[in-house]
Amino acid sequence: MNHRIALSFEDGVTRFVDCRAGDTLADAAYRAGINIPLDCRDGACGTCKAYCEAGRYDGGSYIDEAMSAGEAAAGYVLACQMRPQSDCVVRIAASAALCRTTAATHRGRIGSVTRLSGTAVAFSIELDAPAALGFLPGQYVNVRVPGTDQKRAYSFSCGPGRASVSFLLRDTAAGLLPAYLRERAEAGAAIEFEGPLGSFYLREIRRPVLMLAGGTGLAPFLAMLEQIAETGTDYPVHLIYGVTGDADLVELDRLDAAARRIADFTYVCCVADPVSPHPNRGYVTHHLAADKLHDGDVDVYLCGPPPMVDAVRAHFAAHGIRPANFHYEKFVTSGLVTAIGDSIATATAAIPETVLPQ
Questions:
Q1: Which of 84, 124, 187, 273 could form a disulfide with 166 if both were Cys (CB 3.0 to 4.6 A apart)?
Q2: Which residues contact 181 (CB under 8 A, 6 or more apart)?
Q3: What's the gap between Cα 199 and its chain centre?
């Protein structure tokens, strides 16, 4: 049987390839026209070394000079030797451009536009070719605003494998896409996007998970929770969802549905407005219960506006909180997205921030 392999490149592009039974990862990539780094094909040079983040595989044979036993135990693979035995996510140590591939363009039609509150709107796209789109829960795409040459980045708010995809965005007066959805969008209108993109996505769950969402930064977590509900997990998952005012709390019905479907999923909401009647006032950092941090044995995912992301990072540093893995993504209302992922189990240096093109 064929397995679907997600190739995650250094520049945030993700491409999916089908790997036939018995084929190596290199075979599948080159058949799809993706020239991942490769030299000897014999497990002798190490040029094609990559990292498998999820999935089962046969690592094949190689010499120690190409890859050490310690690297293999940690999840590193040689693309010329690795034979996938399930769907896999593999991080390639090169850019998509270097491997002669780019983000794919997908087309569809506006399905629905739903105003969730005075500050948030959801919309869906009915895909022309659903089977052609693969993405990892948490990733985003660059949506071309109809009638313009401009693109804006938005995270999927649904899981993969659907005939339509959905998005959640802040309804700002100046935003190009919000203005289009408010003023001109009609069901059935053509729209296109490029992707998937981004290094902010759900990894294989190997320990407790803590999700921190700010405003419409809830979107990627809705996608992650859909995936978790379908695949299941043996570990607890907790979400803290913070907003500015009461009216900004949206999609609570979907969080309730996730709590019913996922055995050990819990969530709390908090509102920053000091005069809010909500029982949980304050910022996300005010509601970081110690038991949800599991003494550092936790994977943290954080998505929200820059001040929130910076506040959480400062809080972690001030209190000596060192999660096993820390993945985060910033967004601003202009549509710019900054995607970052820290793995601070072995390193504390921050990865440089990159503003992704719109």
A1: 124
A2: 113, 121, 123, 171
A3: 6
Give a yes or no: residue 279 inside a domain.
yes
Which position has the token pair 């999609």?
251
CATH number at residue 265: 3.40.50.80
243 shares a domain with 181: no
* 140-144 vs 190-197, strand pairing mode: antiparallel
- In angstroms, the CA 58 to CA 47 distance is 18
* Same domain assignment for residues 185 and 217: no
**Residue 350 located in a structural domain:** no
Burial of 174 (0-12, 13-18, 19+ CB in 10 A): exposed
Examine the fold and report which residue of 151, 171, 197 is the final residue of a domain before the chain moves on.
197
Whether residues 125 and 160 fall in one domain: yes
70-105: burial string, b at 16+ Cβ within 10 Å, e else:
ebeeebbbbbbbbbbeebbbbbbebebeebebebbe
Q: Are residues 155 and 120 in the same domain?
A: yes
Q: Specify the 3-state DSSP secondary structure of 209.
A: strand
| Domain enclosing residue 53, as ranges | 3-92
Domains contained in the chain, number: 3
- pLDDT by residue for the chain (358 residues), tens only, comes to 899 999 999 999 999 999 999 999 999 999 999 999 999 889 999 999 999 999 999 999 999 999 999 999 999 999 999 999 999 999 999 999 999 999 999 999 999 999 999 899 999 999 999 999 999 999 999 999 999 999 999 999 999 999 999 999 998 888 899 999 999 999 999 999 999 999 999 999 999 999 999 999 999 999 999 999 999 999 999 999 999 999 999 999 999 999 999 999 999 999 999 999 999 999 999 999 999 999 999 999 999 999 999 999 999 999 999 999 999 988 765 554 444 444 332 222 222 233 333 2
